[in-house]
Amino acid sequence: VQIVFLFGQTNQQMPLPPTGAEPQTPILYREYDTVPLALEQPIDPENYVLGPGDRLRINISGGVFEEPITGEWSLENIDNYILVDPTGNLIIPRFGSLNVLGMTLADLQNEVSRRARDQIYEEAQVAVNLIRVRTFRILTYGAVNQPGFITVTPVTRLFDCLRYAKGVHKYAHSDLVYLNRDGERTPIDLKTFLAEGDLQSNPVVREGDRIYVPFNDEMATQARVFTEYNNNEVIVTGFVRSPRRLTHIPGYSARDYIAMAGGILDIGNESGCRIIRADGS
């Protein structure tokens, strides 16, 4: 579907990045394939629960010892960058496999410290650092503009999930959002978060969570009418503020798409609006 206003469009060129320029990302993050993650506050090792995809740096200093051949003093140091595998196992050189599902970062450091003192050196010093947090997928469904799975992190909050799902449908319930976790459905009052900044009303999501946004009472019986898996596009062009392609959202009218394109310019002619179907009619 195309919505056209007297066929006019801005031809704006986008600047190209300079060629031969050095990447702006610090070399440390390029080397280990990670970038700094925006956080609300520092991650607490006592509360951060590990899972598949977390990337860790484990450093074990075994103390000073004398080389048996040369007689020189050396410092034994084991430094590894390790990824938690999809089954939750961590393969630590010299220690073997360790399942970390359900363990916090602090629990892991305590366990590695215990093994290091038992197997390497009784005064071994252990440091466990979280280099990159994992990503995982959760389901958002119901009255959202793009139902399906979205990719989040262990520090993503529910309100962000709705943004990743392209926002809520115009017929969504104005007060209700449900968080399904461990077989329980909990109503979440996002308005309390937005009005008062109450973070309890905007919880951090976990693996296995499902977010459901119901339709309003008038449209609840027509939920299937406003849901489809065919992600066609609607092109809005001509004298609107921001000509663009928009994902087709069931239930939205031509006026809705014009509004999402920024509305009609002062020089636009509303009575000249045309809808061109996919077959050209």
TrEMBL record:
Keywords tagged on the record: Signal
Entry annotated with the keyword Protein transport: no
MF-aspect GO terms: polysaccharide transmembrane transporter activity
Domain Soluble ligand binding: 142-189
Any single Pfam family the record assigns to this protein: Poly_export
Polysaccharide export protein N-terminal domain segment(s): 45-130
InterPro entries (UniProt xref): Poly_export, Poly_export_N, Soluble_ligand-bd
Protein name: Uncharacterized protein
Source organism (scientific name): marine metagenome
